[in-house]
Amino acid sequence: MEHEMKNLLKEQTIPPDYQFNLSDFALFLSVMKNKAAYENMLRIIVDEPDLRLAEVKAEQVVLNQSGKRAIRLDAWARDVRNRQFNTEMQNDSKSDNLQKRSRFYQGLLDTPILKSGKKTKYRHLPSTIIIFITQEDIFSRDLAMYTFTEQCEEIAGLHLDDGTKKIFLNMTSRRGRPDLVSLLQYMKNTTLDNPEILVKDKRIRELDRIVREVKQSEEWEAVKMNILEIGMEKGMEKGQSKGQERVNLLNRLLAEQNRTEDIVRAASDPALQKKLFKEFDI
Fold it and tell me: What span, in angstroms and rounded, lies between the C-alpha atoms of 58 and 86?
């Protein structure tokens, strides 16, 4: 997983009083380490109230051949039926093709499972469900959930049954199961006071309890401080860059008027520089 939060910080700063939501990569990662939180989220997404997870891993690295691209999974899990789940919080859906990314993830998830040898059978491959949660409707059909499975083009209803499923969730739509729409709106604005949450059932309330526990933990405090420090550094860099652009523009305008002496004086006289900024309206 490319770290969306770090990419975001390259473009904007985060104010110290920013309220992190579950749609923010850092909080999502911290919460999904908790088996109960991941379990409740998946129960809503795949509409299986009795789903139970056996194992959960956050930021799971799946290696590729030497020199080839590996992947870092946001939240991986295995349930008691031996199905694999991978859930990605994808805030930036325009920088690359998510459909092909899901294909690449599918291949690498399967690769390390089967051992070499004639006794190894493909039927031993576990079912996998890959989930991308996006803040944009990448298919432009105004659905909260798009589910894809392999099926025959010539015969309607004939499914390949290869055990793979890809789900794309869209936070912008209200067209979907009320509990799913409520989960997605909770992720956007992570508080039970959010008026967009239509269903506040046991699963969402339990998820909210875990989110609040995580936010009060020392581990999250350290993560948050690191994020804010990075944001402040980026803000300072951005401010310095803009300030330099302003000075460069002033110098160019003065040079066009052959006011070389003002350029030299302004470099060591802040009051004069301020006066010249005002003169040129920059």
Answer: 10
